[in-house]
Amino acid sequence: MNISKKNVEELFKLVEQKINLEAKEAGFSEHNLTSGVVRESSLRKFLLGLLPDFFKYGDGVLIDPSGNKSSQQDIIIYSPYMSILTQDSKLFPIDSVFSTIEVKTTLNKTELKKSMKSISKVKRLKKSLNGNIKCNIFAYNSDSSDTIFKNINEIKRELSL
Question: Quick one: the chain helix, strand, coil %, rounded to 5?
């Protein structure tokens, strides 16, 4: 099967439309917490179709061997084979975690600062195994990319990141 660049771009546009439709549908609840949970669930469902079964998804707090904790993470991608906690636990051992995703309806300077603070807490945790956790921010809407980059630099200076 020959997949052209045009086909790939078209596929990504369809995926974007599907995710945006689910986000708009979530917005009808008019309750920020409810719509946020639905948007996180929608993104989690999308990721399930992309990544191998080796990965599991959850939300909660990361903990390192010294007992240091992160703030609440919207989506945590982890290995269930390395985790010693139960499925119902909202604590994830840092060494079982591959990636985190902060999910934002709109990424403006305030939400970007909250996300960067949360990411910095994850990055301060000590892993006993080698490797880095990839921390991501996913937003359904945002300020312009120029504004985002400007805000990132300002927030980095402000928070000494």
Answer: 45, 25, 30
